């Protein structure tokens, strides 16, 4: 099996089409066995005076070998999920969790790191090496290195169980999303929907051997109905199905219910925090983040909520008045998107759908690449002849002055058996290997846009363009690093509440007239976005920004409170209701089960860290204000941002890097100005 297992062969890029579920567990077992043997030899060699190459670099090699076998599997499980692959993937989770716990609690390894950090050689280490050692020693302590054996064992059991539960949450959400659909045979029922949305639904029906149209809970389909369907009952039906996924409510009540999974996750996280000497999981979460303490995070969020709530109340009052004029006197959650879009159209004579025609995918990508080429002095070209997991996937290479920098895959469109949302996955880290050869980085960039239908190219809404820029910002952070030590290259070692800075920073160019000129062109004529549409779009930029602000603050406070107060007797929904009472202006129906699909905090890396989106938004708005002062395509400012933020990865504290770029600590003023929520804007 080893000789033919594609996960165990040396490769540049994975042979995705050759990977089968039966390859997964044998590959992971083989690498873990090899790594355990290699670790024993490594510790023996470093028993006296450890060296960087003998200890850290050797461990990096082991991690890279495991990553080479596991990263393609983890990726395929997210983008091409099926029962056999899921079973193989889940069989490996406890094995990987046990392995990483072993490493984190290996006393000899910990002592070797301590000895290296205290050795005379450490005085000559560069800043990235010093930071990597500091983070390693911190992470040993957060892995329970100081705990007595029985508690160390319990730590390992908790981590293993949490890994399984996160996967279960994600799987149940995916299954619940796919468990509901609505087959429509009368086109009149879809009145109000755009031609592109109906074409996508017709394509979905054909794929299932059905006539007519198939509405699903994949986001492009859900969004089309909730935003454009004139039939209020249809909007309510899909809203009810969508916001009760994986819960005890709604049309599939009790199927794939994530409620007990959430409670078990929260209980285990709290136990883990207590084991390690923290009062709660929120405190443990901040031990490796930029924020200093829980009070700082809570006061930051409550301040944003207080600033945003009057604007949100004004937004809602205007929306209710408009809906009443249209004959809807009792505005409900399933009406908000519909009447908001109608109000936007009335007020600004613009809609996402009008804009979609001006954002064909290749024009957007070409403009995006032109922008970053100008800002950062790089070149991007598309590659062909590569192995892939789906025909829609594209591969690109970044070069600089003719030299290879890195590559990235784009998997942009929604489809069955693909996890919802959008993300960047660092598929391979930049580093020097044991022979001194430079390994270049690879990134996977994944979105869930509406695919091409009816002979037209894929056309993006401006919201989707913004999502694309966001994920590409993450990709640039991973790919443009100049750090050659794995522990601090790209996004490695970057505090979680600063990792959104480069991604949210990129979104700013979606609103710049010079940037829009590059990324827009009518899909039929190539005509650039007309000046009147551009002006309307910019005028509508902050439409309902108050409502958007309190929505994000609600999610962030809910997440943080949930992890800071678990065990105080309140249920998950009671915590959510208390937060809504504090910051929200619009309450959803009682059957809404938003937490059951909040994968960011229950199946992703954002537990007690969702606030980082708003935290990093402050950083990104302030960083962008330097471009506003010096020219949005000023290459000198672009190079300065690249060298201060993107190139240095996790080699230094985020605040140090930010101050190096901006010349001072961040201010909230730029964010409030960008959102139209400053007192001057009021």
UniProtKB/TrEMBL annotation:
Binds 1 zinc ion. Keywords: Hydrolase, Metal-binding, Metalloprotease, Protease, Zinc. It is an enzyme of class 3 (hydrolase). InterPro entries: M3A_DCP, MetalloPept_cat_dom_sf, Neurolysin/TOP_dom2, OpdA_N, Pept_M3A_M3B, Pept_M3A_M3B_dom. Its cofactor is Zn(2+). Residues 33-148 form the Oligopeptidase A N-terminal domain. It comes from the Bacteria. Pfam families: Peptidase_M3 (PF01432), TOP_N (PF19310). Its EC number is 3.4.24.70. SUPFAM superfamilies: Metalloproteases ('zincins'), catalytic domain. It catalyses: Hydrolysis of oligopeptides, with broad specificity. Gly or Ala commonly occur as P1 or P1' residues, but more distant residues are also important, as is shown by the fact that Z-Gly-Pro-Gly-|-Gly-Pro-Ala is cleaved, but not Z-(Gly)(5). Residues 226-677 form the Peptidase M3A/M3B catalytic domain. NCBIfam families: PRK10911.1. Belongs to the peptidase M3 family. PANTHER family: PROTEASE M3 THIMET OLIGOPEPTIDASE-RELATED, SACCHAROLYSIN. This is oligopeptidase A. It comes from Pseudomonas cuatrocienegasensis. The lineage of its organism: Bacteria, Pseudomonadati, Pseudomonadota, Gammaproteobacteria, Pseudomonadales.
């Amino acid at each position: 099996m080893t000789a033919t297992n594609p996960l165990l062969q040396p490769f540049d890029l994975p042979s995705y089409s050759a990977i089968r579920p039966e390859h997964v567990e044998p590959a992971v077992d083989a690498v873990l066995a090899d790594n355990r043997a290699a670790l024993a030899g490594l510790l023996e060699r470093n028993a006296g005076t450890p060296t960087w190459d003998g200890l850290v670099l050797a461990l990096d090699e082991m991690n890279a070998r495991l990553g080479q076998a596991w990263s393609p599997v983890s990726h395929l499980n997210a983008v091409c999920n099926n029962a056999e692959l899921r079973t193989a993937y889940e069989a490996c989770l406890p094995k990987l969790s046990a392995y990483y716990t072993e490493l984190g609690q290996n006393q000899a390894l910990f002592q070797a790191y301590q000895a290296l950090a205290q050795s005379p050689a450490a005085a000559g280490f560069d800043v990235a090496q010093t930071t990597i050692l500091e983070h390693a020693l911190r992470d040993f302590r957060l892995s329970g290195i100081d705990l007595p054996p029985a508690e160390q064992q319990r730590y390992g059991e908790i981590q293993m169980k949490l890994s399984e539960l996160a996967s279960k949450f994600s799987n149940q959400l995916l299954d619940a999303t796919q468990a509901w659909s609505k087959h429509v045979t009368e086109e009149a029922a879809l009145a109000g929907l755009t031609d592109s949305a109906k074409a996508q639904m017709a394509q979905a029906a054909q794929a299932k051997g059905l006539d007519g149209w198939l509405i699903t809970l994949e986001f492009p389909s859900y969004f089309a109905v909730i935003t454009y369907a004139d039939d209020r009952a249809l909007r309510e039906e899909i809203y009810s199905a969508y916001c009760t996924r994986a819960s005890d409510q709604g049309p599939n009540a009790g199927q794939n219910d994530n409620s007990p999974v959430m409670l078990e996750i929260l209980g285990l996280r709290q136990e883990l925090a207590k084991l390690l000497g923290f009062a709660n999981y929120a405190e443990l979460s901040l031990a490796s983040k930029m924020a200093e303490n829980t009070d700082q995070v809570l006061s930051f969020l409550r301040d944003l909520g207080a600033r945003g709530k009057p604007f949100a109340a004004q937004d809602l009052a205007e929306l209710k008045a408009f809906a009443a004029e249209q004959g809807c006197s009792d505005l409900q959650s399933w009406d908000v998107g519909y009447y908001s879009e109608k109000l936007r159209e009335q007020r600004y004579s613009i809609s996402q759908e009008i804009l979609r025609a001006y954002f064909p995918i290749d024009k957007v990508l070409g403009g995006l690449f032109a922008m970053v080429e100008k800002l950062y002095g790089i070149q991007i070209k598309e590659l062909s002849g590569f192995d892939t997991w789906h025909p829609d996937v594209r591969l690109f290479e970044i070069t600089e002055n003719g030299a290879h920098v890195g590559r990235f895959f784009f998997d942009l469109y929604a489809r069955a058996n693909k996890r919802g949302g959008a993300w960047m996955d660092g598929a391979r880290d930049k580093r020097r290997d044991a022979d001194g050869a430079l390994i270049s980085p690879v990134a996977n960039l994944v979105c869930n846009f509406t695919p091409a239908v009816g002979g037209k190219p894929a056309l993006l809404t401006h919201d989707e363009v913004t999502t694309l820029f966001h994920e590409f910002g993450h990709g640039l952070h991973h790919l443009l690093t100049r750090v050659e030590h794995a522990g601090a290259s790209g996004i490695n070692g970057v505090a979680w509440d600063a990792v959104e800075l480069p991604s949210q920073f990129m979104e700013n160019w979606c609103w710049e007239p010079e940037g829009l000129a590059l990324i827009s062109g009518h899909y039929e004529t190539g005509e650039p976005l007309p000046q009147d549409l551009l002006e309307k779009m910019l005028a509508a930029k902050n439409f309902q920004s108050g409502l958007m602000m309190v929505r994000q603050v609600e999610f962030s406070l809910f997440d943080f409170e949930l992890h800071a107060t678990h065990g105080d007797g309140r249920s998950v929904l009671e915590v959510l209701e208390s937060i809504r009472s504090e910051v929200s202006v619009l309450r959803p129906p009682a059957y809404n089960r938003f937490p059951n699909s909040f994968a960011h905090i229950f199946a992703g890396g954002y537990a007690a860290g969702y606030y980082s989106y708003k935290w990093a938004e402050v950083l990104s708005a302030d960083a962008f204000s330097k471009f506003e002062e010096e020219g949005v395509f000023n290459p000198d400012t672009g190079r300065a941002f690249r060298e201060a933020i993107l190139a240095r990865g996790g080699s230094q504290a985020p605040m140090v890097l930010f101050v190096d770029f901006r010349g001072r600590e961040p201010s909230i003023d730029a964010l409030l100005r960008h959102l139209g929520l400053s007192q001057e804007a009021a």
